[in-house]
Amino acid sequence: MKLTEKSKIMDKKAIDKSLERMAHEIVEKLKAVEDIAIVGIKNRGAYLGERLAGKIEKITGSKPNVGALDITLYRDDLTQASEQPVVHATEISFAIDAKKIILVDDVLFTGRTIRCALDALIDFGRPSQIQLAVLIDRGHRELPIRADYVGKNVPTSLKETVEVKLAESDEKDEVVLCERGEVKI
Questions:
Q1: pLDDT tens digits for 131-150?
Q2: pLDDT digit string, tens, across residues 19-67
Q3: Domain edges within the chain
Q4: Element (H or E) spanning 180, and its range?
Q5: pLDDT for 64-108, tens place per residue?
């Protein structure tokens, strides 16, 4: 399947502005930063989580704990995704018990990735609360999951996909709407 770029949804400045707004919303809603921990879903969610924590630190003067969660072995499509799945390390070096966890991902689509992340996170302890922050919510939920903090809502068709590119992994920051096309042989 071939992806054709249709339009740029966000550039570096728009991504930064959205993260800034989300950080302010988190601080306003949760107040005590010492009770907050941010856990990003690897890979891009972890990068966004680190950026979000930096923005919270600029606002409050205190940086929340930040971790990265690998959900590979929790996926319900593991056998369909790859014969040899690549498992990355989960990096949560703090206790999550009684913490208010902000789970961060790049794109919210069906909700299945978030369900996997919730299962994985609960294996580390019992937080007092888990909230979800996503850069893009594109709709098409299959599970009753919604984000508490959203950078941008982008209505899409099922023929479209949203690609988030971040400097940490893709050498530039942008969000692009693509259309799936058939590869002709």
A1: 999 999 999 999 999 999 99
A2: 999 999 999 999 888 999 999 999 999 999 999 999 999 999 999 999 9
A3: 11-76+87-158
A4: strand 174-181
A5: 999 999 998 887 665 455 565 566 789 999 999 999 999 999 999
Query: 11-76+87-158 architecture in CATH?
Result: 3-Layer(aba) Sandwich (3.40)
pTM score of the predicted model: 0.91
Q: If we measure between CA atoms, which residue out of 32, 27, 12 comes closest to residue 149? A: 27
* 144-151 contacts, C-beta under 8 A, 24 or more apart: 144/111, 145/108, 145/111, 145/114, 145/115, 147/108, 148/29, 149/22, 149/25, 149/26, 149/102, 150/22, 150/108, 151/10, 151/15, 151/18, 151/19, 151/21, 151/22
Q: Strand 65-69's sheet: what is its strand order? A: 65-69, 36-41, 100-108, 129-137, 149-153
